[in-house]
């Protein structure tokens, strides 16, 4: 991970905060040129929101940008189709993914749309989510559109 | 349109409300079995939000659902990749689109994911958005990830 450790940790810290709140522990952070533009975390449990996944919450916090060139989105879990669609829409060029084991996500879709994706296999992100899902299997399934 | 007129009008009314607020006039409504589950509209201008497209705002208003079976999402404009991704994630089975002229959206993606999509070519939806975009071309471009 090298120089991306600080950047990724901003996303992981959001996942930890979400876990401590009883939420689904997935976090995200948007950076550009060493500057943190915003962070977010999944808020399904905290706010009863279906759409505030970590990445969406992060982009909402960042607010309006006319251009996402040069940004990197860090997320602790591989993006679902909604979050991947947002990344493609705004042409965010790079996504660093904590893990894609718990949920494979839409990495191929992102690459087809020209996004550079790297999966760093962070066991901390996997463990946080495994602990949540073990205690809240229905909420976790609901969050990723399971039936 | 037949029996869908009332359902679609709930989305169109949201677009009109958005226009009157100075917002990007795109609205959405989620229905099931003749019951309105929630409505939403684009809030980029009103709330400085990048992610509150009409469909996303609508799904946020609806809140947590364990199952979207039997729902139909009405939207005045063809869904972008973020909104289409949300529809795919939650397996919303049917989307009625007001128009796909101003913005083609991700209709093929939705069909590939098994969503039934119908475009009704509503000139009122097109006109509202044309009037907004003529006066706010940069905000409109920003909303759909243009550069």
UniProtKB/TrEMBL annotation, chains A, B:
It comes from the Bacteria. CDD domains: nucleoside_deaminase (cd01285). Residues 2-117 form the CMP/dCMP-type deaminase domain. InterPro entries: CMP_dCMP_dom, Cytidine_deaminase-like. It comes from Dietzia aerolata. This is Nucleoside deaminase. Gene3D superfamilies: Cytidine Deaminase, domain 2. Pfam families: dCMP_cyt_deam_1.
